[in-house]
Structures are given as structure tokens and as C-alpha cells.
Structure prediction request, 1324 residues.
Amino acid sequence: MSELTYLEAGRLALAEEMRRDPLVWVVGEDLGRGGVFGQYRGLAAEFGPDRISDAPISEAAILGAAVGAAMMGTRPVVEMRFSDFALCAMDELVNQAAKARFMFGGQTRVPLVVREPIGMWRSSAAQHSQSLEAWYAHVPGLVVACPATPACNKGLLKAAIRCDDPVVYMEHKGLWPMEGEVPDDPDFTVPFGEARLVAEGGEATIVAWSAAVHVAADAAQTLAADGIWVDLIDLRTLWPWDESTVRRSVRKTGRLLVAHEAVTVAGFGAEIVATIAEAEAASLRAPPRRLGSPRAPVAYAPTAEAALHVTAEMIAGAVREMVQGAPR
Amino acid sequence: MSELTYLEAGRLALAEEMRRDPLVWVVGEDLGRGGVFGQYRGLAAEFGPDRISDAPISEAAILGAAVGAAMMGTRPVVEMRFSDFALCAMDELVNQAAKARFMFGGQTRVPLVVREPIGMWRSSAAQHSQSLEAWYAHVPGLVVACPATPACNKGLLKAAIRCDDPVVYMEHKGLWPMEGEVPDDPDFTVPFGEARLVAEGGEATIVAWSAAVHVAADAAQTLAADGIWVDLIDLRTLWPWDESTVRRSVRKTGRLLVAHEAVTVAGFGAEIVATIAEAEAASLRAPPRRLGSPRAPVAYAPTAEAALHVTAEMIAGAVREMVQGAPR
Amino acid sequence: MNAMLPVNLDRDRLRAHHRLMWRIRALEEVALRGLDEKLVLGAIHPSIGQEAVAVGVVAHLAREDLLLSTHRGHGHTLAKGASSGAMLRELLGRDGGTCGGKGGSMHIADFGVGMLGANGVVAANIVIAAGAAHAVKLRGENRVVACFFGDGAINRGPFLEGLNWAAVFGLPVLFVCEDNRYAATTRTDTMTAGPGASARARSLGVPAEEVDGNDVLAVDEVAARLVGEIRAGGGPRLLHAHTWRVTGHTGADPGAYRSEDETRRGAALCPIRRARETLAIAGLILAELDGDEAEARREMEAAYAEAQAAPFPPFAAAFSDVQDIGAPQHAAAA
Amino acid sequence: MNAMLPVNLDRDRLRAHHRLMWRIRALEEVALRGLDEKLVLGAIHPSIGQEAVAVGVVAHLAREDLLLSTHRGHGHTLAKGASSGAMLRELLGRDGGTCGGKGGSMHIADFGVGMLGANGVVAANIVIAAGAAHAVKLRGENRVVACFFGDGAINRGPFLEGLNWAAVFGLPVLFVCEDNRYAATTRTDTMTAGPGASARARSLGVPAEEVDGNDVLAVDEVAARLVGEIRAGGGPRLLHAHTWRVTGHTGADPGAYRSEDETRRGAALCPIRRARETLAIAGLILAELDGDEAEARREMEAAYAEAQAAPFPPFAAAFSDVQDIGAPQHAAAA
Ligand SMILES: Cc1ncc(C[n+]2csc(CCOP(=O)(O)OP(=O)(O)O)c2C)c(N)n1
Ligand SMILES: Cc1ncc(C[n+]2csc(CCOP(=O)(O)OP(=O)(O)O)c2C)c(N)n1
Ligand SMILES: [Mg+2]
Ligand SMILES: [Mg+2]
Prediction:
């Protein structure tokens, strides 16, 4: 185990996979100087400019070229800088990368990883703050990962690079400096579709991913101080998502709250709540709930940005209401 | 009232709005010759090539130019041909059109309509068959309409053109030839967020939109023959969606089934089921259910394409199970 | 028709082109009949009249070279070596089609012969081709990637991004713009500013040449030079081939937006007829040349009949080849 | 420095440019201090060193003309007539900012003076500018649209699509490529193939000119000609202005990826210093020119102080201006 930041864990994962497999290469803007957040610092020195490749400001070509290069047996990792810019490459990701294997009848694979940093972060405003993970979960052919901790960022990124299908890999910009213990084993990977139990308790189930996991963990602590113990589940990957762990927990607790940073309406929380409502209706002792962003773009002003945040107080309050059967 | 096809109703709506407001104009590929489905036939002759404008194959410019033109006070209607191609203009639609009003602090409006024909249709395969309405419902700033009948296609398109915010307008390719009574009143519009009750009954609520409404109507007929009467709600617009009508119905029936053509996972059905599970848990007499496409791209071969269809039998079967309390 | 023979005419080579052009045309004529007979299911975009571009260019590609195409991809695919049987099964949506019936005409592909796919999104193949060539370079292989697209495609962003990419990274791609003067029902000169594909390519650092795309020998010759330059490590090239599609945009399109005059002049350019006339002047007997046509038609009729006999893919095909982890779960076949 | 005076020097005009360039620089220097003082909140992208392009071009725009900008948009915005007070309030995220504090530096806009917005997505403004000009044409108005972007932006698809669009429809747009040789930390010549912005523009049917973008009189002169041609109905033009950003890419970027030599040579190009030297040779006394600087600094200090006194927008601002129908519902303020 080593103490690493979320950012360093991602960088280490990439370096290890590049050492392990010469077909792994990375492409994106400014990578030669370390990338916009420093996630690639030092890698060009070790791997050279062909494998840590700069790119023109050509998101469609970055992703489209990665599709072609992946079909030809290399394993590109693509950096989109802010997930918002991936919208400049949506045809390449959704119509091409996600569908090539299927529409060509299994003749090819597209083993690419698209890193798309998400989330609200320091007054970044409407075009640099989005969390559109629900979109990708809706698209057949894609795997979707949203790591919340340094260890997960190492293990999931490695799993993503080893995956033979396209993976949308969403790091949260607010988590870059977060520190944590990270396994040293170069074969440590986090399997897709296996959630992580962050806290355990019998009175409610909180499901979260990405930065919201930490907000929920704060809430869980507050609740514990009040004697309310909850299961806190970090989903880690949204597709596939660990339905059986969530169902098992809900069968135990009878209460489900999903918290995420993305817009609530048609967010992935809807999928989880709908699935549980369909499949675990008999287990539910209170109506399930979602907490997410109101359906508004993200503002620059901190007061207005903050108005969209799901807070630990909101989560704790919602759980308390559910447990105490308070009216909503 | 006149008997018109869904296609003709849309064309009439557009012509009427263009006569009413000289600032309305239309732009897209091949419009001068009537558009890919003939939705624009004859309009260039009446309104001239500036107002029924051809475009280069430049989806990003089509939508981006419409954003600029809308900000400058015109009311562009944009034709994307197949909703799949709108993925080539996702930055323009989601980062620009949807956010301009907000991020510029209300200094401007973007009154544009993006027509994006959706749905599976005659072996069109993976890149010409998608239904991504859930994506747009997730994006603050957008209005989302999915007309199911000729009358709605007239009234909703007119409402969309009169709307001061960007509207994603999703006609279903399979509905073009559908005939129906359409009001002649040039001021007939369908308000956003008001559902249409297609059938009435007390035992279950079926919610659908677009082509799935007709599949569900078939199912409702079968069920009625068996003495099972249902409320069938055509949502007509997904954002805003008519939550109160759905809730009122579920309070009456205690059972909810949402049927749509789009992929089930993270589809808009999840939003509806989640909302009802949260807000109407006490009314539910059976677990709510969703029927949609498996999470797979659409194949060319009819056997494999059909494997993704939600059929009237599936809907009727699901309702029967819900009513009879059959185990799933 | 000029009765002069090209200097250094390679009769055998032209004869082979003649045969291959006939195979393409016969395949597409059968496919059009299949459309009428409601056996070909989705839209098809015939390349009738444009065969010389596919044939002249692909003549310079080895089996290990790669090719990417558009919605109008039958000719490229057949020229690259795909089997007509598998292609027609694909067009009929059958088991044993090149894509197992899952892709159809617009996504026809045969990776076994280096044909990396037609594409339903105009210009999308341009950036993918650049990426395939990027992999070729990274792996130190010696392969050329040919990427075909239409004159309408040069108005989409990926044209700029893909050509710039290929030039910046010095990649082995031959971009081929098949300029048939129309994009669906739209005359491309009405929606395209500036001097066109070659000028755009040059401004992006990609040397370009223009050619009469209905003259298979001319295409053959310039493609030889360009592919040679690419193989020598010269980076990408663009070939702007002027041609004409004889049919409508799709099999269902009568093409009525084109003037009679234009249609008549376009049809007169037929590349197969021109090859035939040259061969006749060079001494081949017409009966032999007719044999090329007959043989091609026999092949395609047989393939068509055989395709009709093939079963549709099973229900489960709808759920395979999606993804390894998180693949769709479905109830047993209905 | 060449001691010769430009023929026909309009001293008053150059003096006005000098003043405006100082206002831009003073505003950005205050903004950079605001960043240090954690009062400016998000990233800012200063245009220090590039002021001459904004000033020389916008000098030819009337109030009813329009302008679209990029992430690096303070200079354009101020030049177009926005108030420094409202701009600094916006950078501090306050009520009374040009966008009510909702946009910040990257989305600064003042529709009242025809400034239709900075943009956080590189090249996205190009197609929007084409559309604004499309509306101008449809409405039969007599307005010019200026669209600024960087040398990195010419590698994105919307550059091609937007220029082609403007040329096809004959729209009144002046595209201005501010070429500062870098895109963030990347030398653009390493990622841009071909001869550059002007050649690309010409290949898209848009006549183009190059200019020393650090010579405000040169910019002024060529912009005069191009805007004149556009106003005369000549369709779009592109101005490729060579310049240098003195600061890093963002306020937080030391710019260490540039060589010392490059940095030194770049700084020596300072357009304000050049204007000052020309004015001095033309007989203006330095104290007066120093007064321009001092006055600009006073203005911006006052604006900065005033912005700090302004309140943040209320909680409810998060939910207004989203959309009329289907607007977000939210619980009462927390
Ligand atoms: C991005 C995109 N926009 C529009 C279409 C619809 N479309 C299919 S083919 C075509 C015309 C293409 O013209 P061109 O590139 O000249 O090729 P051609 O059909 O002439 O071979 C159009 C507009 C599409 N498939 N993809
Ligand atoms: C589509 C997109 N890709 C990447 C970025 C990140 N980014 C912001 S500014 C910038 C550099 C732009 O360079 P250039 O166009 O030369 O303008 P300059 O910053 O030099 O003024 C980049 C890459 C972005 N904002 N949008
Ligand atoms: Mg064409
Ligand atoms: Mg630059």
C-alpha cells in the first residue's frame, strides 16, 4: 500500500499498464506537458511522444482516430480534458466506438478508454462542470466508470485499459488532490459492476458514486452520531452497475436513497430507484428517494453554484425523514 | 378538422407558422427538394430558398448557426434528418443552445426548434434508429417533445416554434404515413407538459409517448377484450412532463407501466417510475414496471431488429401480471 | 470517343479492371432488384457509374492494406476482396453475411480483407481512417489506408480534423474524394465554397491530385503514384476523382432533381463502356468482353439466389457482439 | 524601433488606441490580482500582449455591429463598449456583472453593445457567428459580425463548417484568427499541418489577409479594408493576426513551456510600447502618454473596488434564466 492522491493513482495506473502492454498509448491535448491537471506529468519522458501523444484541438479526430486505432489492435486512452468537450466527439463515441463491434457483426473490437473529467469545481461555470454519466449508461456498447477514491482510480483505470470494449472513464475534478491508500500490486484491478461498501448499517441504503460518495460518507457519520446506521454503497461503475449488492442492502434496510451530483431529472439515480421499485417493492419500508442537482445549468457565482450541490445535510435530512417516516 | 397524415400535419404546422411570423425560417440538407422524408415538400416554392434553406452537410454549423440566428431574434427550425446525426452537433445543442440564456444571465434567448426524427424503421440499422429522448430531458434549458399523432404533430410543432427556448422535437419515422383528424384552427397548439388520455380505465396506468403509444393502444384493446380497462397516457412532451396527470391516474389505478421504444436502462421510463415510486408509493398496489429496448444497438436483420421491439403482447402481458398479481 | 490508345496500355490490367467493374455493377443491379423484390431490406446507395474509382484505387492496395468507406460502399468492398456471396447475404440481412446480417448495406465490412467498414454517418470514416493509419504507424507496419468519401463530406468538420491529423502525424492514408457533384438531392457546388476538395486538402498539408474518375486507367495511374508516395513514407495524399452516379442517391430515388441533360451527359461517361471501347480498339473481341459481363451477372445471380436461401440470424444475434461486460440480458427467444 | 513615422499618421486615432489598449491591460492586470486575492473565482485567460488585435479590429465596428469571442475575451468585450465595472463584477461573480455573475470570464457577454459572448468551447463561436450573420442577412440589416478565435481553433471542425457556411451564404463576418503561436501549452505549429489559417480560409472561399497583430495601426488599416469589403456585400473575410500572449494560458499558468528566448522576444513586441514610441516620435509628450496608463489603472482600480462591494447573486439566481416552460423548481432559499 502507498499513500497516493487520486490524481497520482490514475497516473500510476496508466504508467503500469503502459509498461505491461506496449500497445497502450495515450492521446490528448497538452499531454506532453503533463495535461491540464497534471495527470500525465512525467509520462512523456518515460514513454516518449508517440505513446504519450499531443493532439490538435480536434476532439472529433482524437476520439475518431482512437476508434480506428483501437480497431487495429492498439489500446488508446483518450483524454477529453473536461467531459463537456466530449460533446464535440459524440458521433465518434456513440455512433462509432459504441456500435462498431455490433454493427460489423463481431468482426472488430474497440478497446478504448475515454477519460472525461466531470463535476462542479471552483466556479467553472456551465460549460466546464457537467456530469453526464447517465447518457453513457443509456448507450449500448459502453462501459461507464466513476471512481471515487485513489484506490479505485488505480484499479478501475487499469481494468478499463484492459477491457476490450470502450470505457467512458469519468474522474471527478474535485477529487484530484484527495489522498488515500492504494494497493501496490501491479495486477490490482477493480472489477466492473462490483460496488464498494463504504459504511454498513441496517436502517437505510445510500447509493452514490464519484464525489457524492464523500458527501454521503459525511452524512453517514452525522447520522451515526445520532444512532442511525446506514449502508453506504459506492457504485464505482454505472454500467454495469451492481444491482445485486444494492438489492441485498435494500432487502436488509428497506430504505433507499440515491445521491448524485448530476441533474436529478433523467439522471442515473432514476435507473436505480426504478429498478428497486420494480424488483424490491416488497422490501421497501419507505418510498425510495433521489437527491441530485436541480435541472439548471451550473452558474459561475459561488452562491448560485452552491445552490445545485447535494450536501451532507440534505442527505442526512432525507435519511432521517425516511427512517422516522416524516412526511416529505 | 381535416384528415391528414402525421407528415402532412407537421408540414402544415410549419407553413402556418411561417405565414404567421416572417422571422421563422428552416434550414437543413435537401430541404429545397422536400427533405429526406418529404416533410418540406412544396414549402420552398411558397417561402423561397432563404426561408426554406438548403444546408451543406455540416450538422455542427446547421445547429450552431441556428443558435446565432436565434440569439439575433429569428426563429430557426433545424432539420437533423435522423436524430442520430444530431450527435454531430451535440456541443452546439447542449453546450451552446441549451445554456446561452442562462450563462449570459438572461441577456439572450435561443428560440430554435431541432427536428430529430427517431425510432426503428425498416432495417435502418444501428446508426439510423436511435431514440435518445432521455438525454435531452436530462439537459437543463431544453424542452423535449415526442408527438404520437397527426394532431399532436401539428399542435406541438406550432407550440415549439412559438416557444422562446430551444425545443428538441422528435418525430417518429414510423409514424409519417399515419392518418388522423387534425384541427384546422391556425391557432391550435398543444401545450407542453399536458398529457393526452388515450384510453380510460381503472386497473392500471400505461404511460407511453411517440410510436409506443400506438403499441400500447393495441395492448389496451386486447386487455379491454379481457375486461381489463386501463388508463393510457400519451405524455406528448418529456420535458416538461405531465407528472400530475400520471400521479392522478396512478392514485386511481395503483399500477404503473411505462412503455417506450428507447433502451430501458437510463431511459425516460426510469424517471417516471422513480418519480412515482418516490411520490406515490402509498398508491401503488403492484410494483411499477418498465418496458423498453434491451441495451443493444439496433441490428439490420429484421429478426434481430424485432428482438428489441416492445410489442402489444408484452405490454398486455405485463399489465395482466400486474393486475393478477402474478410473480414476475 | 478518342480512337487513340493510351501509350503503354497494359491490356491485361485493363481487362481485369473491366471484369471487376462488371462484377461491381452486376452486384448492385442485383441488389436493386433485391430492393424491388423486398429482399434487400434497408436503404442501399448504388455506385453505378462510379466503379472506376474503386477499381483504379484498390488495384494498388494489397490484402493487408486497409480501406474505409461510406454509405456508398459496395464497390470498394468488392474490390477489396470481399466475397459477393457474403455481401449479398449481408444486404439481405442473413446469417453468413459479412456482418452476420447485423450491419446491412450501410455498415458492410470485411475485416478479413482489410475492409474496415462502410459508415452511415457522412465523413465519420475520415477520422477513423486516420486512426487506423495511426495504429499502423505506431506498430511499425507497412500498410496503406484508403479512405473513400463523397464531395458532400468535405463540408463536415471531420474532413478538416482528419486530414490535419494525418498530415501532422505523417500517416499513410490515401483520402479519395469521389466527387459525383451531388450530395443526396443537393448539387454540392451550391453548398460548397472555394475551389474544392484538392484545395482544401493542400491547405491542410495534404498534397492532392485531381483525376477523371470515370477513366479507370487514369485513376489507376494517379493512384499508383500517390500510393507509392505514401508507401515511401511521404504521409497522406488526397485524390479528387470526378465522377457521376448514374442512379439516384438511394435505390428508391429516381434522381428527378437532376436535369435531363445532366443525366444524359453523365450516363455517357460510363467507365465500363470506356474501358470496353479501349479494349476493343486494342484488339480484344467484343464477345470476350461480353463474357466478362455475363460471367459477372452469373456470379451475382448465383450469390443472390444463395443469399435468399440463407436463414435470418437467430433472435439471439440481437444481443451478441454488444460488449463483454454488461452485455444485454434477455429472456429466452420469444 | 524604426524611427520613421507612418505616412498619414492619424495621431488622435493612435492615441485613442493607446488609451484603449491601456484600459484592456489595466483591466486584466487587476483581474490577475483578483485571482491572487481569490476574488476572481474561475480560470481567466488574459490577453496581455494581444491588445492591438482587439483594438484595431473593433475600431471598425459600430455599436450595432456584433462580436463573438473566446475564453480569451476581455479585450474584445471592453473594446466593443462593455463597462469595466460590469465586467469586473462579472469576473468576481457578483450581482450587476454583465451576466449577473452567472457566466464569469469565460462567458462574458454584453448584448447591449453587440458583444454576443465569450465561449468556453474552442471554435464553437465560429458557427454561432455565422448564424448571427445569417440572421443579419435574413433581416436585411446592415451589420458586420466579428468573430475572434485563436490559432488552436483552426484545427476544430467548426472552423471549416463555419467558414464554408459564411462563404456559401455570403454572410457579413470578419473572422479574426489571433495567432499567438500556442494553444495552452502546445506550440500550434507542431499540431497544425499546412500553411495555416489564411490558406485554410482561402480554400474555403474566404479571402484572407495576414497582419502583424502587435502593430495596432497595421491591424487598424487592414481591418478597415476587410470590414469595408464586408459592408459592401463582399461576404466573409479572414484576418490572420500574428501576435503573442505575454502571460501564461490562464492566470495560474507560468508559461514555463516556452523558451526564455521566445518569451523575451515576445515581450519585446508589446503593442502598447510600440504605439507609445510612435506617438512619442510624433511629438506627444511622454507624461501625457503616462497619463493614459494612469487613467486606465484608476478606472480599473475603482471598478475592482466597486465590484468587491457588490453582493453575490441571490440563491434564486441559480434557477432563473433557464427556460420559460419546465423551469427548475426549487425549495425556498436554504
Ligand atoms: C452526418 C450526416 N449527415 C447527413 C447524412 C445523410 N446523408 C447520407 S448520404 C448523404 C449525401 C452524401 O453526399 P456525398 O458525400 O457527396 O456522397 P455521395 O452520396 O454522393 O456518394 C447525406 C446527406 C448522413 N448520413 N450523415
Ligand atoms: C473544444 C475544446 N477543446 C479544448 C479546450 C481547452 N482549451 C481551452 S483554451 C485552449 C487553447 C486554445 O488555443 P487557441 O485557440 O490558440 O487560443 P489561445 O488560448 O491561444 O488564445 C484549449 C485547448 C476547450 N476549451 N474546448
Ligand atoms: Mg456526392
Ligand atoms: Mg493560440
